From TrEMBL:
<dbReference type="InterPro" id="IPR029787">
    <property type="entry name" value="Nucleotide_cyclase"/>
</dbReference>
<feature type="domain" description="GGDEF">
    <location>
        <begin position="194"/>
        <end position="320"/>
    </location>
</feature>
<dbReference type="InterPro" id="IPR029016">
    <property type="entry name" value="GAF-like_dom_sf"/>
</dbReference>
<dbReference type="InterPro" id="IPR000160">
    <property type="entry name" value="GGDEF_dom"/>
</dbReference>
<dbReference type="Pfam" id="PF01590">
    <property type="entry name" value="GAF"/>
</dbReference>
<dbReference type="Pfam" id="PF00990">
    <property type="entry name" value="GGDEF"/>
</dbReference>
<protein>
    <submittedName>
        <fullName>Diguanylate cyclase with GAF sensor</fullName>
    </submittedName>
</protein>
<dbReference type="InterPro" id="IPR043128">
    <property type="entry name" value="Rev_trsase/Diguanyl_cyclase"/>
</dbReference>
<dbReference type="InterPro" id="IPR003018">
    <property type="entry name" value="GAF"/>
</dbReference>
Length: 320
């Protein structure tokens, strides 16, 4: 049996999945309707909306199976998310990757599998819409197109959840998404005794920009700052716009000193942008940085309060 690899963007992919707050939730008709339709269209006994967690595949919608999850290492869907197009297995018993897979040799006795990867708006592949048969079969081009069409509808439903946790203007997490996901990240760091650092940002002088140039230009300043912030940090770091001109970044497996160095690079990048843009104002920020002690971690609310206090101390120091 071939154990599936991890996608190259696994950290971002898992963070995106966690931000949906969908795992281990109750069945929903909007997803069940689509798996029932897939079951009928393709005349298969099993149809699933499968989401790939860190060590399992979990079924948001499940027609034809009693279980709600299986281990990731035996999952066909974990193979499917390694590519951008359908994974079709006409006969799993004749495929060296799956012939001795326990889902083939035992229940549910998979012989045929077709799965279409489900893409989040940020490009992460979260799982699949898949159809399964206990008999080998072919899958025509028309079948493939139909499965893609159904998967696109599932993606639209997931996008609704995704956008509810994202800031539409800047493309980073919003406060809701950050407050849902950051506690999970902090628990993971505490369990693994891994350092983490919170940076709390406030744009300096955004109100005068809005007053003088209009809110449209203020939105430009926010978008530019968010883009520079994302480029300065790693893909595995959690970046959010908490509201107005406030941003936060939770940086995993790194120290306060390293984050401070990154912030200085961010400041230099924005200074270069200010010189080149010549828009009549400069994008500047104040920041408070708090290192999390994994053995005595503060709550997220306490970390944000401490970061806020340090940010205002920094702002006051810069004003003098």
């Amino acid at each position: 049996m071939q154990v599936p690899d991890f996608p190259p963007d696994e950290d971002v992919r898992l963070r995106t999945l966690m931000s949906l707050n969908i795992l281990d939730t109750l069945p929903e008709e909007r997803f069940d309707r689509l798996t029932r339709l897939a079951q009928r269209v393709f005349r298969v006994p099993i149809a699933l909306v499968s989401l790939i967690d860190s060590n399992r595949q979990w079924f948001k919608s499940c027609q034809g199976l009693e279980v709600r999850e299986t281990p990731r290492d035996v999952s066909f869907c974990a193979h499917a998310i390694l590519g951008n197009d359908l994974l079709v297995i006409p006969d799993a018993a004749a495929d060296a990757r799956f012939a001795d897979n326990p889902l083939v040799t035992g229940e549910p006795c998979i012989r045929f599998y077709a799965g279409s990867p489900l893409k989040a708006p940020n490009g992460s592949l979260l799982g699949t819409l898949c159809v399964i048969d206990r008999q080998p079969r072919e899958f025509s081009q028309e079948d493939r197109d139909a499965l893609r069409d159904l998967a696109a509808i599932v993606e639209q439903e997931l996008a609704i959840l995704f956008l509810a946790t994202m800031d539409e203007l800047t493309g980073v997490c919003n406060r809701r998404g950050f407050m849902m996901l950051a506690p999970q990240v902090l628990k993971l760091c505490q369990r693994q005794l891994t350092p983490a650092t919170l940076a709390f940002f406030d744009l300096d002088g955004l109100k005068p920009v809005n007053d003088r140039f209009g809110h449209g230009e203020g939105d430009v300043a926010l978008t530019v700052f968010a883009a520079h912030l994302r480029r300065s940090l790693r893909a595995s770091d959690l970046v959010a716009r908490l509201g107005g001109d406030e941003f936060a970044a939770l940086c995993i497996d790194t120290t306060r000193e390293k984050v401070t160095t990154v912030i200085e690079r961010l400041r230099e990048g924005l200074e270069a942008h200010n010189r080149e843009a010549e828009r009549g104002y400069e994008i500047r920020f104040s920041c408070g940085v708090v290192q999390v002690d994994p053995e005595n971690a503060l709550s997220l609310d306490a970390l944000l309060r401490e970061g806020d206090v340090l940010m205002y101390e920094s702002k006051a120091g810069r004003a003098r």
